[in-house]
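Example protein as discussed:

>
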Amino acid sequence: MGNKTTVDLRVIKTKKAIRNAFAELLSTKDINKITIKDISDKAIINRKTFYNYYAGVYQLIDEIENELVATLTETLRDEDFESLARNPYAFFQKLTAIINHDTDFYGFLMQSGYNANITQKIIAALKLKIKTSFLEQSGIEEKNFDMAIDFVFAGMLSVYHNWFISGKSQPIEIISKTVSTITFSGLNGLLK
């Protein structure tokens, strides 16, 4: 049994190194120009080790996208629009916990620029999930809801992106608290 735990920890550590290497490479290279050799060199593994886990770069991308969407979907699962509107910070605390769980990875991903294909695909999936979860509950007209989601996501991404590239100059809890206030109360919420 101890042996299985050791193997599992090595697998987790290796996959994390691969993911972080890929995310770090995104900050300097176009996604279509990142090779398995690039990832292996950055993760300090050999290519055979990479192939033990992934058939190629696009399978790695799919896994990252699916895991990020699943993580946020899990976070949203227990939320309803009414409780979220009453206490948005509870949701942002959950986001903060997700980011704190793997700060390096999310930092590299954010530094890649939120125009990277992978980030756009993740955002599109998350917007769809939020829309299907909350549109009916909110009573907001669909086109207005779409506009609000676009506005909120662009602002949130910008704030978290700037936080990562500024060297995390403030605690993320303060950033999340401020973003939750602005998201649901606008600038007036900050003036109170």
